Amino acid sequence: MKDSIVLITGASSGIGEACAKVFAKLEAKLILTARTQERLQPIAESLDCEYYLLPFDVRDRAAVDTAIESLPPEWSDIDLLINNAGLSRGLDKFHEADIQDWEEMIDTNIKGLLYMSRKVVPDMVRRGKGYIINIGSTAGHQTYPGGHVYCATKAAVKSITEGLKQDLLGTPIRVSLVDPGLVETNFSNVRFHGDTERAEKVYQGLVPLTPDDVAEVVLFCATRPPHVNLMDIVMMPVDQAPLMLFNRK
């Protein structure tokens, strides 16, 4: 991975931040994206590698286009795209849910991933070199109560990943999907709109995955031989069984 250009969306916290750290250790050159420069800067400064900060919102197609087109020539040949930006909002019953929450999840989890991939993948095909790793979720495999739209977005990520691999057959471009179960990040805090007490209860009494656990799996995918494509990796803590069964002590 030395000197490979790795673009990570949602790099300002959680899994994205953890991915930045593991790839920095291998001396990759990192393009870190998030909505604000202020959140990216301290993370970037803690890394011992070359980096380029690219603040924009993946939900904004024009902003995605402008951001990628603004990359200097020495940063424009992206070797690995990690589509990590994503979120969940709410856990209400379908008929009581906030439609704005639905739109935010759809715009970020599906459309943001599509915009980024559509902008980056053609150049990978042109160069005959590249890898796309999408961060999905076990929620893309089964639906749980209150998860209707979030689970639908992650099922869409699974379908998009499979379709992209099929369409890239015959090229050397690899495509992978990493589907974590319960990971302790700010995910639940975002889902519950800043209700920290409710968010903390999600992880009580069990040992969840950490962002570092997921980042190590992403790194494992990226460092396999060029002829090996790990298509879909489902990972969850020992205290979780598919999908919403937990061993709480």
UniProtKB/TrEMBL annotation:
InterPro entries: NAD(P)-bd_dom_sf, SDR_fam. The keyword Cell inner membrane does not apply. It comes from the Bacteria. Coiled coil: none annotated. It holds the Pfam family adh_short. The keyword Oxidoreductase applies. GO terms for molecular function: oxidoreductase activity, acting on the CH-OH group of donors, NAD or NADP as acceptor. Keywords: Oxidoreductase. Belongs to the short-chain dehydrogenases/reductases (SDR) family. This is SDR family oxidoreductase. It comes from Lusitaniella coriacea LEGE 07157.
